């Protein structure tokens, strides 16, 4: 690729040697020089790209530092909020546990009291039933003893009558057999 940078004096000499007047040759070289200055050359392109790359690297590094700082701040804030939330949850769980244990203790006490009352009532009722049954059994035992004594008296009377009847029959049968 030909270089766009050129020696203006050498070019002016060539144009004059070709038969162009000196003032015209200088004007042509000056015009071409100005138009070449605006052209993009490989060295200018590489220099501009290197400058742009350096600028982008600098800006990306600044952005990385900013992003890292913000991420660090966010991470710190998140850790702080999580710790606060953990403390709050632990406190609420402790309160709920205490409330539940208190409620369970109250229910247990109420249940034990109710069971004790039921047991006392049952024992009292069973005691009353036992006394009543023993009294009734005593009454029945006396009644049975009286019935037994009546039965024995009637048996004795019947037995005595049978003996009298048999004795009379025996005497009658003996009287018949003799007579």
Q: What does the secondary structure layout of this molecule look like, with pairings?
A:
Elements: H1 8-17, H2 22-37, H3 42-178
Can you give a write-up of this model?
The longest helix has 137 residues, at 42-178. The chain has three helices and no strands. The protein starts with 7 loop residues before the first helix and ends with a helix. It has helices spanning 8-17, 22-37, 42-178. With 179 residues, the protein is mainly α. It has two domains: 1-39; 40-134 and 136-178.
Residue share in β-strands: under 5%
Radius of gyration from the CA trace? Answer: 69 Å
Largest sheet: none
Q: How many DSSP helices? A: 3
Our measurement of the CA-to-CA distance between the termini, rounded to an integer number of angstroms, reads 192 Å
Properties at a glance:
mainly alpha; rod-shaped; 3 helices; 179 residues
In short:
This protein is mostly helical and about 180 residues long. Helix content is about 90%, strand content about 0%.
């Amino acid at each position: 690729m030909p270089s766009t940078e050129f020696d203006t004096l050498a070019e002016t000499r060539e144009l004059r040697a070709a038969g162009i007047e000196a003032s015209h040759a200088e004007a042509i070289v000056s015009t071409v020089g100005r138009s070449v200055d605006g052209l993009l050359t490989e060295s200018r392109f590489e220099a501009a790209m290197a400058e742009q790359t350096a600028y982008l690297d600098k800006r990306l590094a600044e952005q990385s530092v900013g992003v890292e700082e913000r991420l660090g701040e966010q991470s710190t804030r998140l850790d702080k909020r999580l710790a606060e939330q953990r403390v709050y949850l632990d406190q609420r769980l402790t309160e709920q546990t205490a409330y539940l244990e208190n409620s369970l203790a109250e229910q247990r006490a109420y249940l034990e009291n109710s069971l004790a009352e039921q047991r006392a009532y049952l024992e009292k009722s069973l005691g009353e039933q036992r006394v009543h049954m023993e009294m009734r059994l005593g009454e029945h035992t006396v009644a049975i003893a009286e019935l037994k004594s009546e039965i024995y008296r009637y048996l004795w009377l019947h037995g005595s009558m049978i003996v009298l009847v048999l004795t009379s029959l025996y005497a009658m049968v003996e009287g018949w057999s003799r007579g």
